[in-house]
Amino acid sequence: MRTPSSSAMRKNALAAIVLSMLTGPLIAQTTVPSAAVPAATLPMSMAPVTNTVVAAAQAAGPAFSGGDTAWMLVCTVLVMLMTIPGIMLFYSGMMRAKNALSVVAHVFAATAVVTLVWAAVGYSLAFTVGNPWIGDMSRLWSEGLIGAAVKAHPSAPTVPESAFFLFQLAFAIISFALVIGATVERMRLSATIFFAGLWTILVYAPIAHWIWEPSGWLSAMGHMDFAGGTVVHIAAGASGLVAAKVIGPRAGFGTQPMVPHNLLITVLGAGLLWAGWFGFNAGSAFEASSRAVGALLATQVAACVGAFVWGMCEYTQRGKFGVLGMATGAIAGLIAVTPASGYVGVLGASVIGFAAAIGCYLAVTRFKSWTNIDDSLDVFALHWVGGFIGTVLTPVMALKAIAPITSTFMTNLTGALAVSLYAGGMTYVVLMIVKPIAGLRVTAKEEEIGLDLAQHGEMIGHP
């Protein structure tokens, strides 16, 4: 038998050592995490390296999910598109032609103001621990949201808090944009600018804290609002009603026809809202998961039921299916399913969409004549009524198989009423602050000419 030479033995030993060093990390990664393997069980040459890598990973902060982060960024863009250009087009088409550009200006300005206020103080007031009523100042000027040391918010543990911040910013923007619809064709742009900033700080941020921050008092009660039926729609609806009452009706309200100048623009806006709502609701899962898919499905079902039922209501009243009616019905279904989308199945979404279409149809067709309040674009009749219906039905229709049912009908009713009273009352206070600073209403002459020319010196088209 031939024995290997000492030189060959040294070469084989060296090859074995090199092979073990190259394959050791691969074996460790495919079996158990390296952090779980005691250093004593690793080759002596690998232990210091492994410990260094583990220490560096721990110092770097939480391990975020790239997929969840990408999903949240996409949803943020979708929600932003709901405002610019979704709400912008939806509202502009509903205006008389002489005021069509003015609402675009108001939405643009509000988007800029809310963004700056949110980055400076709004997010910190809404989404830090603070106390049950309001957050603290630990995120003032977006402190801790930029750079490698960024961590996660407890509500979205798999994505950087900066992604959570951006998603919630898009919600804050659209919430105030909805309020604008109640006062169009007569509110000054300067008033909207001050109104937007103060409303975000004094109305939206506290309500978001109550319900969506784990330390909030309604959150502690178990109030269920998956994507904003209470925080966004009830708050915006109550605020819009008060704003419309304070500023007063448009000249000619109740005596002159005030019909939309371009329904095609409105329906295009409704389509963008519908598509963006998938990000609005499904994104509120804060991860790319089966729950997000379920929320998206519930959103689509409720919108379709709402469109169909509203169309049938119009058909029974006037023998025609109105395009604006079907678009409005879809919006009603979308509003109502917002708080429930992450808790209900297809049946629950259908029931909520049906109830919202009936309730909102009755409110839109009767509310102004009952109250004589000129809520120009039916913000209260759509968003408050739809949000209220969805909020109180959420715990009733929720499925334990999807998520724990933490609330009851009465708990959600309590939250809906508390938010309504607070949003309405504080909106009145805000407008009383704004009035002596910027004035609220344009002059009678400007209103007669139209805000496009009087306030902006522009027209939507030329003869």
Report on the architecture of this protein.
The protein has a single domain (69-456), classed as Ammonium transporter fold, CATH 1.10.3430. The N and C termini lie far apart (106 Å). The model is unreliable at 1-51 and 53-59 (pLDDT under 50). It has 463 residues and is mainly alpha-helical. 68% of the residues lie in helices and 0% in strands.
Sequence-ordered SSE layout with sheet pairings:
Elements: H1 6-31, H2 47-59, H3 66-94, H4 100-126, H5 161-180, H6 189-212, H7 217-221, H8 229-247, H9 263-282, H10 290-318, H11 323-337, H12 346-371, H13 379-397, H14 409-438, H15 444-449, H16 451-456
Largest sheet: none
Q: What is the gyration radius calculated from CA atoms? A: 27 Å
The CATH top-level class label:
Mainly Alpha
Counting structural domains, the number is 1
> What is the CATH topology?
Ammonium transporter fold
Number of strands: 0
Name the CATH superfamily classification.
Ammonium transporter AmtB like domains
**Secondary-structure element series:** HHHHHHHHHHHHHHHH
Q: What average pLDDT do the residues reach?
A: 90
Architecture (CATH level 2) name: Orthogonal Bundle
Percent strand equals under 5%
By DSSP (H or I, 4+ residues per run), the number of helices equals 16
**Percent helix range:** 55-70%
Give the distance, in angstroms, between the N- and C-terminal Cα atoms.
106 Å
- Structural classification: mainly alpha
Task: Name the poorly predicted regions.
Answer: 1-51, 53-59
Shape: globular
